Amino acid sequence: MHTHGQDRPKPYVEVRDDYARQHRSPAVELRLDGPGGRTLWPLLTVTQGALILACLPLVEAPPEPRPPLPSLASVSQGLALLSGLQDFLCGPGGKPEPDVLASRLAALPSVLLQVCPLGRPLDTPPPAGSVPAAVAPSPGGAQKQPAWKAGVHRGRAVVSVALTEKVRSMQYGKSSQQDIWDVYGMVMCKCEVEGVLPNVTVTLTLPPNGSPLQDILVHPCVTSLDASILTACSVDENDCSAFSGPYKFPFSPPLELFRLCSYTSQVPMPPILGSYQLKAEENHLKANVVLKLHESVKNSFEYCEAHIPFFNQNLMGSVEVKVSSGQLEVSKEKSLLVWVLGQKFPKSHEAALEGTVHFSGTVAGPTDPLCTGLTAYIKLYFRVADFTLSGCCVDQHSVQVYSSAKPRIVTTRELVSSEYYIWNSTGDAPVSSGAVTASH
Amino acid sequence: MTIADLWDQRISAFLLSPSQFLATTSTESFLAELLHELRNDKTNDQLKVTKTLLVSVLLEHPTILCPSASVGEETALELLSVFSHTPQKSIVLKCNVMLAITNVIICTSCLNTHTKTAEDWLDLLFQMIQDINDYRCGLSQQPIRATACDCLREMETCSPGLLSQKLEALYLLKQQETTVLHQSYCLLYTLGLKNAIRILTNQKDVTDLEFKSILGGNEGFAWKSNQLELTSLPINMLVQVPRLTQGLDCKDLKSIMSLLLEESYLLMPISQSALLRELVEVVAMVPGLSRTLFKSQLLRLFGTADVSLMHATLFMKDTFTDSLFTTEDENFLLKRLVGMAQHPLLRITEKLFYMECILHFPENRPISSSGEESLPVLVTPRLAAFLHPTVFNDSATMLCRLNLLCLVHLEANEGEADKGIGFLFDHIMALLKIVDNDGSREVVVTSLRALFIFLMHFSGMEELSEKLIDKLCDMYSRHSRLAPNLIGLADRIQEHPRPSLVGQVAKRLTIHNLSWHLKVLKRVAKEGQITQRNTIYLLLNVLINSNLCERGNWQVGNAVLAVYRNLLDHPSIDQVFIELADLLQYISIQYDDTDIKDHARIYYTLLTNLSWEKLTGVLAKRLDGGRAKEPAQSSSESVEATGEVRNWLEVYQGQFQTPGFGSEVTLRYNLTHAKETDPLFDKVFTICLHFEPKDSNYAKVTDIHVPCVFRDRKSPEVKVKLKPFQPYPTSLCVSAMFTTQDGRSWHSRLPDVSVSFPEIFLPLPLPPNSSRECREQVFERIWEATASGNSDKSAISLFCFKPEDKSLADLIKTHFQGYLITDQQSERSWKVLLFLPPKCHILLKITQAEDAAQVSIATDNRELLPFLNSNRWLNRCFAGVHLHRSF
C-alpha cells in the first residue's frame, strides 16, 4: 500500500510523497500495479499497531469527477463498520494477545457474513468479549424486539452507571503562552434489566453555578432528547445563562456495556498547576518543579505521579534531587525520574522537587524530535475516585427504571488525567496551538 | 494431507491470484471440482468448514468461475440442489450457499434475462420469508430467513422494481414480524417502496388509483421493470430529483411512513441510517408528503454519537434545506460538526470525515454549488479556533485542520486574519524545526505538505513566503538528503507563481553530497528565470578539481549530463555558452567512461552546431523532459488522446490478464550428433533433454523428449520454451539421458546453450489482424508512458551514427523486419518495437537526417539498456564493424 508506505529505502517516492495529493482525507487511494495502473478510491483505513483494516465503499456515482466523500452514503457506513471491526478484533484494551487475535481473525468471515452480507453493512460486529451473561430468547408477542438486542435479560436486575472524567492540560509557565486545559467525560452503562424494551432514565446533575456540559453526544439507544441539553457547544461563545441541568437521558438499554453519553466541560482552573524550570549548568541539569493542587480538588488520590523524562541526553549518572513530599525513583532505563506523590498532597497543597541530574559520559539515552535543548516536559498521571472536575454526578436515586423488579443501582465517578503536560518554562515549548481556548 | 488441507491450499492459491491459479487448470474443471466436492454427502465438522470455504469462492468470484450466463445458470442450479441437500442444522453453510446462489444469479445476468432458475430462486426466497416469527421452522432457522431477506434486498437493488407488485404482502410481513428480524423486513419493504415510487415518477399523469395500487400490490415479481437501471442513482447525485405529480392522495403512504420512522429506533444504527436515506428519498419524490414528517426524529439525530446517523442527517439537510431546517438549525448543526471534528472521544477517521463534511456542508443558501470544497459562511475564525493544527496531531488530522484554517483565514476580515495567519505560520515553522531534528520520512513529508498547503493559500504574502523559503534553504544546507523532497515540492509550487524556491536552494550548494546537489541543479536548470552561471562554475570547479573524471562513475556522469541536458535548452544559454562548451568538451575527453564521453560529445556537437531555436526544437522532440512550465500543453494533449487510443492500449494490456499471455519465447534448435563419436551412438533412442537455467531470471524449463536420433537421418528439431522473469541474455546447461541400441542408458552433458539478447525479442503481441493504426497507437502510448518518467524503471536514451556501406532502410530491414511498427521511408523515419517477455518493451524511433541517423530509445525497463549499449548490439546492427557515435 503506497500510502501506508512500508519503510522503503527510498526517501522520496513521488506517487507516495507527492505534496499536492490529498493526504488529509479519511479516504486514501490505492494505486494498483498491472495493466492500466488503475486506482482504487475511496479506500477507508484504520490502523492499529501492525493491523491495517481497510474497506472500499461503493461509489454510487460517476467516478469522474470524484464525488465529494460526504455525498457517498457508504462512507460513513464503512467508517462505522471499520470501527466495529477494530473493536471486535482488538477489544477494549486495543492490544490483544497474538493467539487471541488469531482466533478472532478466524471468526471474522462468519462475523462479516452476519453483519455485512453481500458487502452491505447492516450492523457493526459485536465488540470482543461483550457477550452478556444471562440472556434468554425474546418471548415473542406484540412488542417488537430491537435489532440491537439479541434477547432479554433473565436474573437479578442490576444497573451500573460509571462516570469517568478526563482532564488534559498543557502548561507553559509563561506569560507569552497561555496554559490550556480541557475536561471531557463519558457515562458508561451496563443495564441488566428484564423486558424487551425496558425504560431507564439516567440523570446527570451539576452543582449550583456549575458550568454547562457541552458537546453532548448520545448513544443511539437514547429515545428522546430535550433541545436544551444539546445547546451548549464548546466552540460557541460562553453563555452563562445556558441550561445547566439536570440532564435527563431516557433510553432503552442494549444488553452489553455501552457509552450512554459523553460531554466536554470548561472548568476555571486545572486541578494541578505546575511549574517546571530546567537549567543547563556545565555538565548537569538543574531542575526545579512545583506542583500545586487546586483547593477545590479532593485531596485523596488513588495514585499521583510526575514523570520527568530526559531525551537526547546520555543516560543519567548521579541524581541529587530532593522532594518535599512523596518519593523519587530513577527508572531502570536511567532516562526518567518518577516522582511518586502518593495518595495525598501535603496540607499546604503544594509539593516541590529540586536538585541536579548528572549524565554519564558514554551511553546515549532515548531521542525525541521535539525535546531538544531545554525543550522538556513533565507528564502527570493521577486518578481521583468519587470526584469530577465539572462537578457532574449521577445520583443513585435519580436512576429510574420502569420494570417489574426493583434493580440494584450502582453509580461511580472518577477523575483521570490524560495527556497532562507541564513544559519547562526556560525552554521553547512546541507551539501546541496559538489561538485555542483564548477564553481561559 | 487431508482433503480439507488440500482444498485449503488450493483455495488460498486461488484467492491470491485467480488468474494465475486458473492458468494451471481450467476454469471449467475447477468449477466442476468445486461443485463435486460440495455435493459430497459425507458430513463432518471439518468438511462443513471446507464446504463453506468452497462456497465463499463462488460468492466472491462468481464472474471468474461462471464466465457466461449459461454456466451461471447451471452453477446456480447445482448450488440449489446443494442447498436442498444440506442438512437443516448446517446453518452457516446454508446461508453461504444462499448468498452464493444470489450472487451467481445476479452477476451472470440470469436475473436480468429472467431465467427459470432466477424465477425459481426468487419464489423459494419469498416462500422462506413467509415464516414470520419462526412459527414453522423454529428459532434455529432464523439466520436462514434473515439471509433470505438480504438476498431479496440485493436482487431488488440490482433489478429495481422487482418487488414493486408485492408491497402489500411485504408490508404485512413487516408488521407481523416481532423478532430481531423485523429490521430485515423493514429494510426490504422500504427499498421496494422507494423503487416502486421511483418507477412511477417516470410515468406522466399518475392517477390516484395507480398510486394506491402500489401500496396494495400482492402479485408476482415485476420482471419488466429494468428501465430503472440507469436512474437508480441516489437522489443527491441527480441534477433533478424525480417527482410524482402533485395532488395525489397520500394519506395511506403518510401513515406508513410515520410508522416506519417511529420504529426506526429499533434498527441497528447503520441500518437505521440506510432506512432514513430511503425515507428521505421517498418524501423528496412525493410532493404530497410533508418534510416535517422527520421533525420528530431530528433532536435524537442531532445528538447522536453515531457517524452513519449523523451522515444521514446531513443527507436530509442536503435534500430538504430550508423546508425542514431553519437558519437556527443550520447554525446549530454546523456548530455540532465543528465540535465533533475535534471531540476527544471520537475516532480520528470520524473527525477527519466531519471536517470533510464541514467543507461540503449543505448550506440552505449556498454561494456556490460547484461540489468543490468551500467554507460555509457561518464558520468564523472564532468557531474554527478549536481546529487549529498542533504539532501533537497525527499527520492527516494536522493537514486537514491546516487546510480548513487556511480557508477560514482567507475569508476572515483583516485584523483577525493577520493574527490567524501568524499562528499558522508559527505552526509551519515549528514543524520545520522538528524536521531539523528528526528526518524520518513521515515527518519530512508531512511537514512539507503542510508548507505546501500554506503556500498555496497565502502565496500572495511575499514576506511570509520568503521567510519560509529561507528556512527551507537553511535546512537544505544542513540536510542535503532532502533534495528529492525539495525538488518534488518545487515541481508542485511551479504550477503556481513561486519560482524562487529552487534558485534559492542552489545558492547553498557545496561539494559534499554531490549526487543530491546534481539532482537539485538539474531541476534548477529548468528554471528559465534563473541564470545558470553559478551552476556551470560549480560543475567546472568540481570536475577539474576532483578525481571525478578519473573515477569514471557512470551514474555520476549521467547525473552531470542530466544537468547539461536541461542547460542546453535554457533560454539564457548564450551568456554561458563558452563555459558550457568547454565543460562538455572537457568531459568528452577526460571522463573515464565511453558512454558518458559519447553523450557529452553529442551534446557538444548539438550545442556548437545548432542555433538555440533548433536546439530546443531537437531537444523537445527527441529527448525526454521539457521545460518545466508546460503543464497546460501536455494536459491538453492527453485529453485529446482519449477515446480510441486508450481503447487500443487497453485491449493490448487487457491481453495480459490471460494467464501466461506473451510470457514465453520459443527457440528452435536441431539435435545433431557431434562430429565423431563411437558408432555405438549412431542410433540413440528415448532421449530426454534436461535444461538448467544458469541464473534465476528464467523459469524452470520442462524436459524435452525426443524418440530417436539417427546419424544418417535428418536431425530432429527441438523447441525450447523459455519463460523469462527478467529478459536478460542467459545460458542453459543441457544434459541428455538416452538409450543405445544395446539397451544401455547413458547420461551426457551437452554444450551449454547460450541465449543472446536479440533472441528474446518478440514482435508486439497483438492479434494478427490488428490494423497499423492500432499498432501505432499502442506504440505511441507506451512511448508516452515511458517518456513521462513517471516510473522508476523507465529510461530514454539517444544514439546517433552515420550509416556507411548500406542504406539505413536496408539495415533496418535486415535487423528489424519483424518488429517494425511503421515504415515511412518517404519521411525517412521508422518505428520499431521489441517486445520482451514477460512484459518489457524497447521502442526505437529511427530518423535519418541529412548525414546522420538518430535512434531514440525508450524502454520501460532501464535494466535492459546495458544490453543494448554494453554489447554494442545496436552499433553492430547499424554499422557493422564501423562504430560511429559522433556526427
Automatic annotation (TrEMBL), chain A:
It is found in: Cytoplasm, Cytosol; Late endosome membrane; Lysosome membrane. One of its GO terms (biological process) is protein transport. Residues 156-424 form the MHD domain. The keyword Cytoplasm applies. The keyword Transferase does not apply. Pfam families: Adap_comp_sub (PF00928). Belongs to the adaptor complexes medium subunit family. PANTHER family: AP-5 COMPLEX SUBUNIT MU-1. This is AP-5 complex subunit mu-1. It comes from Cyprinus carpio. The lineage of its organism: Eukaryota, Metazoa, Chordata, Craniata, Vertebrata.
From TrEMBL, chain B:
It comes from the Eukaryota. Residues 249-615 form the AP5B1 middle domain. Keywords: Protein transport, Transport. GO terms for cellular component: AP-type membrane coat adaptor complex; lysosomal membrane. Residues 777-870 form the AP5B1 C-terminal domain. Residues 683-753 form the AP-5 complex subunit beta-1 beta-barrel domain. Residues 32-105 form the AP-5 complex subunit beta-1 N-terminal domain. This is AP-5 complex subunit beta-1. It comes from Cyprinus carpio (Common carp).
